[in-house]
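Archive entry. Fields below.
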Amino acid sequence: MKKNSLLIIVFICIAISLKSQSSTKQDIKLGLIFQKTQSLYLENGIGADYSSDFLLNKQIHLKASYLSSRFGSALGTNAIKQDNIIVGADWRFRQNKDLQILAGLNGGVLLVDYENSVFDVLPKSATFLSIETGLVYNFKFPISISLTAGYNLKSGNGIDIPGTLFPVFYKFGVFYKL
Amino acid sequence: MNKHIIYSIVILLTITFVSCNPTPEIEDSMLDSGKISYALPDSLNRNLVSRYLANPTNVQKETPVIIAAHGYTATTFEWEELRAYADSAKTFYVSQVLLGGHGRSYEDFKKASWQDWQSSIIEEYIKLSDLGFKKIYLAGSSTGAPLILQMLKSELFSKHTNPKGFFLVDPIVVSSNKTLTLVGLLGPVLGYTTVELDNGEVGKWYVYRPQETLKELMKLIDLTRRDLEKGITVSGNFYMKVYKSSIDETADPVSAVMIYKGIKYEPSLNKNIDIEMVDSKIHVFTRLKGRPQISNKDNALQHKAFAEMEAKMKQL
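PREDICTED_STRUCTURE:
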């Protein structure tokens, strides 16, 4: 067990030392995302970020993520299990600097599992649209972190949109550049 | 450049201060004026069982009594129809509690915390327990429900006569209007919000909602949501039923899901609370008086709920 852990650490160190945030034609980043909705759940998951010289010299980033309360608030609690599948695009300001500012637009689907047929009358899914802004920091090694805040343009009303779609959210992401 | 920033800040501050209008214009016909008080002794003597049955007989002590708590900005008017049903059925009593800070004046309301709102429910419950009433039930509509759930979470019931059951009507754990989650940010700018009442509701509900009370409401429902997430495990074999309108523009129906998942009996009892998603668009469908348009279906739903409560109390 200890030997395996050591090997993993050595592998990560080698990967980091071999790769720097040097400029390539296209960048693909994979990472973990932690999202806290104001007055509601922590929803965590995975995400990917793609940019290319073709996308206005990497000024535009395309992204996709999967976030779920199953890996956050609902882990071992009675919180409602819900999943978010999100795609979006960011515009990066200061794209040649380590510290960048982003402004983006996201769209996605929210799927809610009430776990009991008595609640079948309630809306179980909805599409959503949100705006997001914040900061991204690219380290010298192939790791970047982001801290953003966003606003869902249409919130849940419990009638045709699940009531657990709240307006304001905050996200923290850690990405590794492939 | 610097000048522009300074001008922008000055304009923003001016807008903020102009927008802040903490005192609305209150008319005498409004409950907010303080000229129509539900907290006068006559009103309390008529509404509270602990007052009008201050020396109960043994038969009265064995008769079920429901302590009915109304919602945010409302008054005891919200449970008048259940009281009328009970007076006619003569099988149970209804004690219509006026929440702290409510039914008085805008200024009294503004000063009250959610614990103040809750205090009158606790007070009536302890009085009835001390008077020897053996079959105590609690009913909460809208905000009355999280106030009762917070009592359930506390150790209060174990120190007095254990309630036999709970009836929650359109409980609010999540507001349908999600802007409430931003009240900490927007509240100081808005000062208060205004509600349009129907003619039959004037003088029975507050028209103005001070931002301080909206913050208290948000504190209460957010705390209750987090408690339900962790699970409110209760000892005792009491009965609980939640009635939730499936279309509700005030209390998001997802509140019922959270209560269903969050209230836990001891595992040995192997049971869950009862939930009924009611085919209604009315928030607090058990209160029809004062509403402009009532259908036969609305009347039937109200009667069915009251009859079920009565039957359950006979059965337990």
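CURATOR_NOTE: Residues 37-182+224-315 of chain B form a domain with the Rossmann fold fold (CATH 3.40.50.1820).
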